[in-house]
C-alpha cells in the first residue's frame, strides 16, 4: 500500500495528504506540492450530499493547524454522550478528482475565497484542506455546527421565533456578509441551508420578554463565491431559486453584492412567517411571485420617508425583461406590514422592505444593515459569546474593491 493511500484501522481513516498546512496570526498557510502531513479521522455519519460531493461529521485524530476543543455531546439538539470528548469536525470531500495535483486545487474558486477570508465569528472557519495523492480527491475540514438554519426552523414545528432571536440572527448574518463583502467577495448562494447554527442557552428577547434559545450563526458553503473585482459575465444560476435576486432571474450577468442582500431580505421574511416569501416553482413563476408582493418596477408614489412602495422603480429591469420577451404585468405592491404578524417589529419590516428592492443600487448594504434602527430597537444585550478578539458589533470599513 502506498503511504499516501487511505486506509482504515478500527474505523480510523489515515493517509498522507498534500500539502502541509500551518497557521500564522489566524490565517492558514499552505505548503507547496512537495509538502505533506498525516491526516487521521473517524467518520461518524454523513450529514450532507450534493452534486459537489459529500460532507461527513468526523472525529479528528490527526494534527490540525487550529486547536479544536473536545466537543459537547449535543448535535441537532440531540444529546449524544458517546460523542463527549471527540474533536468533531465537518469534512467535505469533492466528487471532482483533481488529476493535476495541488496546483490545480489552488485555482478552485472555493479554495481561493476561503483562503482570502480572514477569521470571523460569523463565517464558518476552514481548519484544513488537503489532497489525496493516491485518489486525487480534495478534502476541506471545517468547524462542526449543530445544524443549518433551515433544519433549525423546521424543528420548531411552527413555533415562531422570539423577537430577540430574530434580531440576533439578523445581526450575525449581516455581520458575516459585511466581512465577506469587505474582503472583496460576494457569496452568491445565500439561503437557510448555507447558514450553520449552534444553540447556546436562553435568550431574553426585547421588548416582549419572551424567552427563546440563543443561536450562533455562521455563513458556509463558498463554492459559488466570486471576487467583487472579477470580470463578468457570471453564470446566471446562483442561490436557491426562492432567494434569487430579480437581476439574476432576468439573466443580468454583471451582478454583485446586492444579490446577497436580496437573499437576506427573503431569509428574514421567512424566519418571521416560517414559510418562504417567494416560493416559486420555476424561474418564470418565481418572477410572478415577486411581482405579486412587490408590484411591477414602475415609479409608484413614495411613503412619508420618501421611499418607494413595494419593489420600487427599476428601468434596467424593464429592459432586461424586454430582451427575454417578458412583460411585467401591471401590479400594485402589497402593504408589506400586512404580510407579517402585527407584533412584528415595524423596523424589521422596514428593513426587509429596503432589502427587497428591484434596483440593486437601492437595497441596503451589509454595513447599512448593521447600523439599522431595527437592531437598536430589538437587539438583546446578551448576544451569543463570540470568538476572542473578534467583534461583530464594529464593522470594518468597506473594501473599495
Automatic annotation (TrEMBL):
It holds the Pfam family Pkinase. Keywords: ATP-binding, Kinase, Nucleotide-binding, Serine/threonine-protein kinase, Transferase. InterPro entries: Kinase-like_dom_sf, MAPK, Prot_kinase_dom, Ser/Thr_kinase_AS. GO terms for molecular function: ATP binding; protein serine/threonine kinase activity. It comes from the Eukaryota. The keyword Transferase applies. SMART domains: S_TKc. The keyword Membrane does not apply. Residues 41-375 form the Protein kinase domain. PANTHER family: MITOGEN-ACTIVATED PROTEIN KINASE. This is Kinase-like domain-containing protein.
Amino acid at each position: 500500500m502506498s503511504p499516501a493511500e487511505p486506509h482504515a484501522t478500527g474505523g480510523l481513516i489515515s493517509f498522507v495528504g498534500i500539502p502541509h498546512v500551518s497557521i500564522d496570526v489566524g490565517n492558514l498557510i499552505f505548503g507547496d506540492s512537495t509538502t505533506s502531513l498525516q491526516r487521521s479521522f473517524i467518520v461518524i455519519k454523513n450529514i450532507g450530499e450534493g452534486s459537489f460531493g459529500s460532507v461527513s461529521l468526523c472525529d479528528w485524530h490527526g494534527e490540525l493547524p487550529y486547536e479544536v476543543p473536545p466537543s459537547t455531546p449535543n448535535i441537532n439538539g440531540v444529546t449524544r454522550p458517546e460523542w463527549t470528548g471527540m474533536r468533531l469536525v465537518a469534512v467535505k470531500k469533492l466528487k471532482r478528482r483533481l488529476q493535476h495535483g495541488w496546483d490545480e486545487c489552488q485555482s478552485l474558486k472555493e479554495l481561493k475565497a476561503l483562503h482570502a477570508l480572514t477569521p470571523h465569528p460569523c463565517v464558518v472557519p476552514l481548519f484544513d484542506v488537503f489532497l489525496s495523492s493516491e485518489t486525487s480527491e480534495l478534502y476541506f475540514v471545517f468547524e462542526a455546527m449543530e445544524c443549518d438554519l433551515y433544519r433549525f426552523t423546521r424543528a420548531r414545528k411552527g413555533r415562531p421565533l422570539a423577537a430577540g432571536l430574530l434580531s440576533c440572527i439578523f445581526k450575525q448574518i449581516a455581520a458575516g456578509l459585511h466581512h465577506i463583502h469587505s474582503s472583496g467577495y460576494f457569496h452568491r448562494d445565500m439561503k437557510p441551508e448555507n447558514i450553520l447554527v449552534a444553540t447556546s442557552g436562553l435568550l431574553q428577547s426585547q421588548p416582549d420578554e419572551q424567552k427563546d434559545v440563543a443561536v450562533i450563526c455562521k455563513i458556509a458553503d463558498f463554492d459559488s463565491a466570486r471576487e467583487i473585482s472579477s470580470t463578468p459575465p457570471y453564470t446566471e444560476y446562483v442561490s436557491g431559486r426562492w432567494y434569487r435576486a430579480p437581476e439574476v432571474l432576468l439573466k443580468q450577468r454583471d451582478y454583485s453584492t446586492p444579490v446577497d442582500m436580496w437573499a437576506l431580505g427573503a431569509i428574514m421574511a421567512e424566519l418571521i412567517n416560517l414559510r418562504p416569501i417567494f416560493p416559486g416553482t420555476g424561474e418564470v413563476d418565481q418572477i410572478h411571485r415577486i411581482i405579486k408582493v412587490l408590484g411591477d418596477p414602475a415609479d409608484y408614489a413614495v411613503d412619508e420617508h420618501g421611499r418607494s412602495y413595494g419593489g420600487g422603480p427599476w428601468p434596467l429591469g424593464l429592459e432586461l425583461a424586454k430582451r427575454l420577451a417578458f412583460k411585467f404585468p401591471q401590479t400594485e405592491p402589497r402593504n408589506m406590514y400586512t404580510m407579517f404578524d402585527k407584533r412584528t417589529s415595524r423596523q424589521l419590516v422596514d428593513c426587509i422592505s429596503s432589502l427587497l428592492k428591484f434596483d440593486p443600487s437601492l437595497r441596503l448594504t451589509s454595513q447599512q444593515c448593521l447600523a439599522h434602527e431595527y437592531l437598536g430597537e430589538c437587539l438583546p444585550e446578551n448576544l451569543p459569546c463570540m470568538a476572542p478578539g473578534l467583534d461583530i458589533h464594529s464593522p470594518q470599513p468597506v473594501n473599495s474593491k
